[in-house]
Amino acid sequence: MTRGPKPKPNAVRRNKHEHAQELEAVAQPGREMPRGLGITTAGGKRFWLTWSRAPQTQSWSETDWTELEITTRLVDEFYRGELKFASEIRMRVAKWGATTEDRARLRMKLDVESEETPEQVDPDLSVSDIDEELFKLLNGT
pTM to 2 decimals? Predict the structure, then answer.
């Protein structure tokens, strides 16, 4: 004999969240970075390119894109040596689901089976440029 009530014949999960998102992990076409932003560092340009093509942008409105512009300016300043913006940048990208933990908290699931490797759009954004900027930033030169 088992303890407790008999389970319902048609059990339904009750912990499913009604606002949970399931996104295809396919790179979006993205948006061109507005020229008026004045982003000069390779790190800032790469940040815009990465986030403008992220799967999360499928459902973004104009206010979300404005937040990306503001955050990209902060990232550009960070790569210029303003390290005080690091925590602000981290808080902002967490709200978009930057890491696996952030996406779990936001109940956001990426369908990794359909994941494609995005092509590099801008040949000026090499990894060595970003590494060089970080080296200068960390060495104070």
Answer: 0.70
